[in-house]
Amino acid sequence: MTQKPMQKNILVIHGPNMNLLGHRKIEANPNITLDKLNKNLRKVANGLELKLKIIQTNDESRAVNIVQRQRNKICGLLLFPGPWQKSAYALQDTLELLSIPFVTISLGDKVEVLQGLKNFEEVDIYKAGELALIHLSGSI
User: What pLDDT, on a 0 to 100 scale, did the predictor assign at position 2?
Assistant: First the structure.
């Protein structure tokens, strides 16, 4: 009897104001929208044989609840925290408690992909998402 390989599920959480992504001044992607970003993430995920569950919320407690509920269903987390980057202590504590591999992509003048203490900058948000998914795929 052949065992079915475990699905590699990745949770993507877009934080506050990511639904307004098109209003940001992102030099490399002036016409970016959340829908376009998600479409690109799904395309990359398909190539890596990953399955994505994508949510956007402005509420940190909702994000924490979702991570807690999904903890046994996901192998990794891709987080676009927005303003939570410097203040999401409850979410950070949850991630530390659950030991789920995660990558954080921070938007500013440049896009930063944060992997624990190792940071690297990528101007293109699409490329940053791709690098993050590749990293997560290798961590699973």
Answer: 46
Residue 28 Cα to chain centre, angstroms: 19
Q: Calculate mean pLDDT across residues 59-66.
A: 94
Structure tokens at 114: 């944060």
Q: How many angstroms separate the CA atoms of 4 and 136, rounded?
A: 21
SS3 call for 11: strand
Query: Percentage of the chain surpassing pLDDT 70?
Result: 79
Cβ contact 67:11 at 8 Å: yes
Domain count, the chain: 1
Q: Is there a domain that residue 33 lies in?
A: yes
CATH code for position 115: 3.40.50.9100
Confirm whether 40 is domain-assigned: yes
